Amino acid sequence: MPHKKIMVALLALFGVFSVGISYSFYTPPHNLKVLPQDITHEKLDSIMHGFNTSLGVKCDFCHAKNKNGDRLDFASDENPAKDVARKMLRMTIDINKNYFLTDSTIHPAYLNTVTCNTCHKGDAYPAK
């Protein structure tokens, strides 16, 4: 029986330790200019994954590398494609808000009636 208590205590400690690790790697987003400042990590990841899928690109299409060049600096505005993405996001938000918004409690950035995929369909540079 004492072994069970030790095992439970170790598992509980490991759980706390692993949660601490996962939170230590997460940093809140910085430099959000279109998306809501209080966006959750999960919602932001979901939107970014939607961009990846809709345009057939990876994160470095819009996000510049850090000064060391070893990872992406998500807050940086060095890559001009990021500004284009913001303009396109404002456009889709405007379309959804003005033509499809039926629930005023939902932030327009979270509406999915018109999305990037509506025009891009997996192509970073859709036909005009």
Automatic annotation (TrEMBL):
<comment type="function">
    <text>The reaction center of purple bacteria contains a tightly bound cytochrome molecule which re-reduces the photo oxidized primary electron donor.</text>
</comment>
<dbReference type="GO" id="GO:0009055">
    <property type="term" value="F:electron transfer activity"/>
</dbReference>
<keyword id="KW-0249">Electron transport</keyword>
<dbReference type="InterPro" id="IPR023119">
    <property type="entry name" value="Multihaem_cyt_PRC_cyt_su-like"/>
</dbReference>
<keyword id="KW-0349">Heme</keyword>
<dbReference type="InterPro" id="IPR036280">
    <property type="entry name" value="Multihaem_cyt_sf"/>
</dbReference>
<keyword id="KW-0408">Iron</keyword>
<protein>
    <recommendedName>
        <fullName>Photosynthetic reaction center cytochrome c subunit</fullName>
    </recommendedName>
</protein>
<keyword id="KW-0813">Transport</keyword>
<keyword id="KW-0602">Photosynthesis</keyword>
<dbReference type="InterPro" id="IPR003158">
    <property type="entry name" value="Photosyn_RC_cyt_c-su"/>
</dbReference>
<keyword id="KW-0479">Metal-binding</keyword>
<dbReference type="Pfam" id="PF02276">
    <property type="entry name" value="CytoC_RC"/>
</dbReference>
<dbReference type="GO" id="GO:0005506">
    <property type="term" value="F:iron ion binding"/>
</dbReference>
<dbReference type="GO" id="GO:0019684">
    <property type="term" value="P:photosynthesis, light reaction"/>
</dbReference>
<dbReference type="GO" id="GO:0030077">
    <property type="term" value="C:plasma membrane light-harvesting complex"/>
</dbReference>
<dbReference type="GO" id="GO:0020037">
    <property type="term" value="F:heme binding"/>
</dbReference>
